Amino acid sequence: MKKSLNVSLIFILLHLFSSAHAHQQVSVDNAWVRSAPPGADVLAAYMIIKNKSEETITLTGVSGSMFGRIEIHRTEMHEGMMKMIPQESMSVPAGGSVTLEPGGFHLMLIGPKTVPKEGEEIDLLLQFSNGHSQRIKVPVKADKNKGGVMEEHGHH
Ligand SMILES: [Cu+2]
Questions:
Q1: From CA 70, how far away is CA 7, in angstroms rounded?
Q2: Rg of the Cα atoms in the chain
Q3: Residue 17 lies in a domain
Q4: What is the CATH classification number for the domain harbouring 38?
Q5: First and final CA of the chain: distance in angstroms?
Q6: Between these two residues, 72 and 6, which has the higher pLDDT value?
Q7: Ligand 1 mean position to 110 CA, how many Å?
Q8: 111 C-alpha vs ligand 1 centroid, how far in Å?
Q9: Residue 48 above 50 pLDDT?
């Protein structure tokens, strides 16, 4: 009787440990949305996504109730022009990270119901191919180095 109690206690502890561990597979740091003028029809979100697991994790979708839709974009040079290429997904290597930053990967927040102001926070849900999803709060900030990345809005 006593023995079986101990066994089930160990099982519960293991289960708690493994589910806590699953939540830490992905971490999101330095997330921010670039503030945009009222009436803007797109905003860009940037962050660092870290994969602490031993397998590649793929970001397959992003949603947020404040926006019509959200796409994963990558800014690339094409024949001397900066162009944003929508991506089906974005892979984060095992034990590595991917940085979303002006001029590279970013989340394109399309069709905001209202354009959020500087200092506000946006709720986003990141969905990964392994079934993991992560809710994040992203503050709206002014671009620290203005200029140089305005092309991201110019193509919409
Ligand atoms: Cu874009």
A1: 47
A2: 19
A3: no
A4: 2.60.40.1890
A5: 68
A6: 72
A7: 9
A8: 12
A9: yes
In which residue are the tokens 């979708």 written?
Answer: 61
H or E element at residue 87: strand 81-87
- Please check whether residue 21 lies inside any domain of the structure: no
Domain count, the chain: 1
Q: How confident is the model at residue 137 (pLDDT cuts 50, 70, 90)?
A: very high
The pLDDT score that the predictor gives to residue 117 is 95
Torsion sign (Cα): 31, 34, 35, 41: negative
> Distance from the CA of 6 to the center of ligand 1, in angstroms?
54
- Structural domain containing residue 57: 26-154
Asked if residue 4 is part of any domain, the answer here is no
In the three-class reduction of DSSP (H, G, I as helix; E, B as strand; rest coil), residue 46 is classed as: strand
Q: Residue 136 Cα, ligand 1 centroid: separation in angstroms?
A: 19
- Give the residue carrying structure tokens 């900066």: 82
How many Å apart are CA 131 and CA 145, to the nearest integer?
Answer: 36
